[in-house]
Amino acid sequence: MKKVTRNEINKENMVALSYCQCQEILNLFAYDYKIGYNTGIYGWNYDLYRIHGVDVVTGYNVPFYNYSNGAIKNKLITLENEIRKDFDYSKSKEYKERFLEIFK
């Protein structure tokens, strides 16, 4: 895992999430796509995931928050809420396919 800077974020195609927003699905399905993290003088700022060309940034101090792709963000939040409500390990492959489909 490497430390990343703001300049490494593709702000033209990104999704900005608050701390712990969609954390369940990112932990379950996006661990292979994690590029790195950023820290500042007060500690950890954000993590950066790159999933099929879309940069997903999640943390306390997310840069370029106003550039976020709202359509992808809403789909992620919907899937996250569905998984939190009724997660079934037997459906995890289906959930992962739906998760990756959001970014295509």
Question: In words, what does this structure look like?
Answer:
The chain has helices spanning 23-29, 70-85, 92-101; strands at residues 2-3, 14-18, 34-40, 43-51, 54-59. With 104 residues, the protein is α/β, with parallel strands linked by helices. The chain has one domain (2-101). A hairpin with a 2-residue loop joins strand 4 (43-51) and strand 5. The protein starts with a strand and ends with a helix. The mean pLDDT is 90.
Architecture blueprint of SSEs:
Layout: E1 2-3, E2 14-18, H1 23-29, E3 34-40, E4 43-51, E5 54-59, H2 70-85, H3 92-101
Parallel strand pairs: 1-3, 2-5
Antiparallel strand pairs: 3-4, 4-5
Task: Kindly list the characteristics that best describe this protein.
104 residues, alpha/beta, 5-stranded mixed sheet
**Largest sheet strand order:** 1-3-4-5-2
Order of helices and strands: EEHEEEHH
Distance between the termini: 25 Å
How would you classify the helix and strand content by structural class?
alpha/beta
Query: What is the number of helices?
Result: 3
How many strands, what sense, and barrel or not for the largest sheet? Answer: 5 strands, mixed
Low-pLDDT segments, ≥5 res: none
